[in-house]
Amino acid sequence: MSLDVIDGYVLEGMLGRGSTSDVYRARDRAGVEVALKVLRTDALSDSLERRFLREASIRIEHPNVVRTLDAGIGPGGVPYIVLELLAGRGLDARLAGGAFSPSEALDVVRQAARGLAALHREGIVHRDVKPANIFCCDDGPVKLLDFGVARFAELTRPSLATKTGELLGTLLYFAPEQITGGRNADARSDVWALGVVLYHALTGAVPFTGRTPVHTALAIMEQPHPPLGPSVPPALAAVVEQCLCKRPEDRLPNAIALRAALEAARAE
Q1: Could you read off the pLDDT of 208-218 as tens digits, one per residue?
Q2: From the candidates 128, 186, 190, 250, which is the catalytic residue?
Q3: At a CB cut-off of 8 Å and minimum separation 6, what does 193 contact?
Q4: What total number of domains does the chain contain?
């Protein structure tokens, strides 16, 4: 994007680059700093534009969900979304340093579950919960990000032969039903993914992996997860077990129930 101004938003530098969009630091007409997410021109297609605009329509007012402030169509017909500008680090960056203490893991995932519960109350399924989409703000809150495939996406069986980092990064948090393509992802798929995040935070490693994406997928569908160590409190370990049931009907039904389970584990 070569433009310095999009519909009155002054671009001040790039914050990040995804597979289909770029995110810029920008200032609005009042001089307030914001994050401006722009669909890249090399990714423009009718289906991606529809998905992007549907993402812009998700407006959840909750302290653990990133706020969408504005959206529109910029010069050349390129859509954009304006988000609150956050200061801090993604959970993926924090997990690169290794496992958290049980209390820290519980606090981060409990806040993420609160944000996810706010989506589930509105009938929205995130469908891509992973550390890269959980942001730890410098001023304390943990916020759920990126609703690019939330609710509206038609999930089909992923191409497990693809070896891109993007697919693998998401695959590690896929629920079994997302891999087999036997059903669309629902709230229980989000519960699985946040359970994987909790396991990762407690141990420093994801519970299911393999030499290739195919081996990883088979592990998710067929293998038990490695047991949690004795340092994990039993009540918290029980929450992990309730999230990582292979059959969706055996899991906690949604993030509302998951949040309650985490609050109960915190109280013990």
Answers
A1: 999 999 999 99
A2: 128
A3: 126, 128, 129, 130, 173, 174, 175
A4: 2
